[in-house]
Amino acid sequence: MEVYALIGASGTGKSHNANSVMEQYHIEMMIDDGLLIKDGKKMAGTSAKAEETTVAAVKRAIFHDPIHASQVRERIAQLEPKKILILGTSERMIDRITEALGLPQVKYKIFIQDIATPEQIELAQTMRREGKHVIPLPSIEVKKDLPNYWIDSIFGFMTKKNKEKDKDKSGSMAADDKCIVRPRFSQLGRLTIAENAIEQIVRYNLLQQEEFDRGAKIQVDMSDFGVSIYCEMKIRFGIPIQSAIEQFQIHTIQDLDKMTNLTVQRIDVRITGITVG
User: Fold this and answer.
1) Which one of 178, 236, 245, 262 counts the least CB within 10 Å of its CB?
2) Backbone conformation region of residue 15, classed left if phi is above 0, alpha if psi is from -120 to 50, else beta
């Protein structure tokens, strides 16, 4: 196995540029912030962004926890990659990761200054100062681990070579498949969404469908895995119950995803009666 390292100070755009490096050197998977990633999917590990403090995040990123290290080490053994890329803030950090995971010594070292322009590095640092961190995974993958986080997709930060390659026939640019999160250890503090705000979004969707009575009872439960919603309401006489409920559930999930990026675990609906007129 050949081990590559992408090295740069925190917030200089390593995660932005990781996919380009992997493509250039035909690398099969990467290790970034405690995660083993392959083809845009998490193979093993736990994101350092899930930790409560910066110190805990650093320990997670260098696989200080033996159980965490063992899980990722075993997964690498199963997948048997020929090449793997490790992202780190220093050569010392890279060495600690390779030691924890039982990987060979680094064969190739790539420094962020060699692949990113000063303007790109400055923009990445600005984003970090705003409390935004990048994970080289699509949003749907990150939501599995960080369902209650501020999550958004990111465009750009692609090399000129990749930009030209990703142009379609109409000349438009393809999106760079990464996402931004604001982790718990952000200096701006943790972002929270009140249950009352979720309830108001749910109630708004109910009001948009005239099939349901306005006096609905709504209960919202938040957890680290997402949000669960329970509704009790009456429905107008003659309305197909199943299709009306399905439309309400679909629209509510879409709005919650759009406005809050929360993962909706379930929306349970109980029809308590029939209304006329």
Assistant:
1) 236
2) alpha
CA atoms within 13 A on the CB side of 206: 24
Euclidean distance between the first and the last CA atom of the chain, given in angstroms as a whole number? 71
Which 8-state DSSP code applies to residue 27?
-
pLDDT at 172: 36
Residue 103 has pLDDT above 50, yes or no: yes
Q: Between the CA of residue 15 and those of 44, 101, 128, 231, what are the distances in Å?
A: 17, 20, 12, 41
Residue 87's domain comprises 2-181
Please report the DSSP string for 105-133 in residue order.
PPSEEEEHHHHS-HHHHHHHHHHHHTT-E
Q: Which of 180, 201, 184 has the alpha carbon at shortest distance from 192?
A: 184
The residue type found at 55 is: V
> What is the tens place of the pLDDT at every residue in 5-34?
999 988 888 887 888 899 999 999 999 989
**Residues 192-209: tens digit of each pLDDT:** 677 888 999 999 988 888
Token pair of 180, please?
């931004």
Same domain, 78 and 115: yes
Number of domains in the chain: 2
Domain boundary among 181, 213, 246: 181
pLDDT over 90 (residue 2): yes
Nearest to 248 by CA among 271, 274, 221, 276: 271
